[in-house]
From TrEMBL:
Superkingdom of origin organism: Bacteria
Matches recorded under Pfam families: 2-Hacid_dh_C
Keywords: NAD, Oxidoreductase
D-isomer specific 2-hydroxyacid dehydrogenase NAD-binding domain sequence ranges: 109-282
Species this protein is from: Rhodococcus koreensis
Protein name: Phosphoglycerate dehydrogenase
MF-aspect GO terms: NAD binding; oxidoreductase activity
Keyword Oxidoreductase in annotation: yes
Length: 324
């Protein structure tokens, strides 16, 4: 490239650190923009860095992306940029795979322990100044089915195994002797696997195949005492069916970090269910996560500008980064 590349950076409320972006700024023209100015920033740009990883602005500005070669999103999920024009283009898409794996795995373990030890119930008793002796459950020996076998699922599997749980996976293709999951069954065999699981953890990417994977028939296939944890995407779940399953006792509880509508409306029935734990899409947001997201991009930019293959390249047909 005879000129310096142009990098458009879409941000929301927080600008990337100048210090961390210095490796890019010294070798490229950097255009910072909010949602309203994205089309102008994309005009002539070679690279788009979506630091606003929840944005819905890219499809509407895509008409200006005639020079775009590479799009990087500061997230593991790439569904915001899997619209037809981007899929069909020659633009390479990369994600921030690897940043959130350990933190989300810890969140899943914490939610499982909270269910087993009834920590929310203990807090309610404390708040009412009630001394009430109770017994709790063990998690050692309990079964966990992890739906989604990417890096976050693998980190979760390793941590749950270390806590003594029996772990298996559900993914696109079946296989035995997996180093982290042991046995991985294919998605079409999910119902029979659900029947044996005490905890079902959803970490799958959102694709047309996984949208509403968890619905009335899925919840009906679970054990009545099973707990459901969703740290994948809200749209993996048909929320009304989940509410109905919780109310009917079809499943025993749910820990939810993601929702099909965010923020979750204040009048939504999930808020008032004592067997539900709600967090605001922050299961992976550890101290320093925003800086790590920038570093993933700047490291990949160094590869791109020097002609090395990019890391974390998304298969646009599959909608995620294939496992190595």
């Amino acid at each position: 490239m005879s000129r310096n590349p142009i990098v458009a950076v879409l941000h929301a409320h927080v600008l990337p650190s100048d210090e961390l972006m210095a490796p890019v700024a010294t070798r490229a023209e950097v255009r910072y923009t909010g949602k309203a100015g994205l089309s102008d920033a994309l005009d002539g740009a070679d690279v788009l860095f979506l630091y606003d990883f929840l944005t819905d602005a890219v499809p509407g500005a895509w008409h200006a992306a005639g020079s775009l070669q590479w799009l990087h999103i500061a997230a593991a999920g790439v569904d915001p940029v899997m619209f037809p024009e981007a899929r069909d283009s020659d633009v390479t898409i990369t994600n921030s795979r690897g940043v959130f794996d350990g933190a989300i795995a810890e969140y899943v373990l914490a939610q499982i322990l909270a269910f087993a030890k009834d920590l929310p119930g203990s807090l309610r008793l404390q708040q009412s100044h009630t001394w009430q002796h109770r017994e709790s459950e063990r998690i050692a020996g309990r079964t966990a089915l992890i739906v989604g076998t990417g890096p976050i699922g693998r980190a979760t599997a390793r941590l749950l195994r270390a806590a003594g749980m029996k772990v298996s996976g559900s993914g696109r293709t079946a296989r035995d002797a997996d180093p982290d999951f042991g046995t991985v069954t294919a998605t079409e065999d999910l119902p029979e696997q659900l029947a044996a699981a005490d905890y079902v953890i959803a970490v799958a990417p959102l694709t047309e195949q996984t949208r509403h994977l968890f619905r009335d028939t899925t919840f009906a296939a679970m054990k009545p005492g099973a707990r459901f944890v969703n740290v994948g995407r809200g749209e993996l779940v048909r929320t009304d069916d989940l509410v109905a399953a919780l109310r009917a006792g079809t499943i025993a509880g749910a820990a939810l970090d993601v929702f099909d509508t965010e923020p979750l409306p204040a009048d939504h029935p999930l808020w008032d269910m004592t067997n539900v734990s709600i967090t605001p899409h922050n299961s992976g947001d550890f101290a320093g996560w925003r800086d790590d997201l920038i570093t993933v991009f700047t490291d990949n930019f160094e590869r791109w500008v020097t002609g090395y293959p990019l890391e974390n390249v998304v298969d646009k047909h599959l909608g995620y980064v294939p496992s190595r």
